[in-house]
Amino acid sequence: MDHDKCSIVKRSLSILLLLFVLFFLGLFSWHPYLIRVLRYRTPDADTYKIFPQAVVHKSDSPFHFIRAANQRNDLDTLHVFDGKNQLVSLKDYIKSGEINAFLVIRNDSVLYERYRNGYADSTLTTIFSGAKSIISIMIGKALENGKIKSLDDKIVNYIPELKINSAYQNITIKNLLDMKSGLEFQDALGGITKAFFSDEAKYFYTHDMKAELLKVKLTNKPGTFWEYKSIDPILLAWVL
């Protein structure tokens, strides 16, 4: 009798294990990017190393920021709120926080800069949402140079591939700059499970960004609802 019970238990466990394996095989086949999410988890400053890279050579007349003769070292004593909502000096915040580099630039001059964890002004790093500002600058230059006619232009005029998805039909470049595209986007906040299946993780780790963007749905009328999300600057990069 005991032998029969053990056999049933072993058989049940084997079936459960098989179902578990089949579930994850199906999941990873359906969404291959989840393998990267599972492997690399939360991106950090060095995550850029896992992606393909290309050398961008400087121009013949590159722009250089000037280091101001009188550095604003007094900013060390500026008080800011830390992660525990307590006031600490900026110097201590940078020293104890997760900041590798901190700069204050006004016009063309570097007024204040601090580095930690072996970082310097020439260290390569993942800039995360810092890319949003760079993309906005590039859109401005494209507009100035006539590559973009108007910020009110619909993005399908620049990305004809998107015409197959009606969600993009009325979205303008300005909508994307304002983060008012109305497109569906799920951030990574709200726990491990939500982060694992989030759009934020998907767009960061996917092997085929364009294919994922073609599936997006519209949740609000473009230009009517503001929401901070990464999909809008990603589309701006595609416009460029």
Task: Give a short summary of the structure.
The protein has 240 residues and is mainly alpha-helical. It has helices spanning 2-30, 33-40, 90-96, 130-144, 173-177, 192-196, 199-205, 209-213, 231-239, and strands spanning 66-67, 79-81, 87-89, 101-106, 109-115. Among the domains are: 66-115, no CATH class; 128-239, Methane Monooxygenase Hydroxylase, Chain G, domain 1.
How is this structure best described in words?
The N and C termini lie far apart (72 Å). The chain is mainly alpha-helical and 240 residues long. The strands form two sheets. A three-stranded mixed β-sheet has the order 1-5-4, with no helix packed on it. The protein has helices at residues 2-30, 33-40, 90-96, 130-144, 173-177, 192-196, 199-205, 209-213, 231-239; strands spanning 66-67, 79-81, 87-89, 101-106, 109-115. The mean pLDDT is 84. The longest helix has 29 residues, at 2-30. Helix content is 38%, strand content 9%.
Topology:
Blueprint: H1 2-30, H2 33-40, E1 66-67, E2 79-81, E3 87-89, H3 90-96, E4 101-106, E5 109-115, H4 130-144, H5 173-177, H6 192-196, H7 199-205, H8 209-213, H9 231-239
Parallel strand pairs: 1-5
Antiparallel strand pairs: 2-3, 4-5
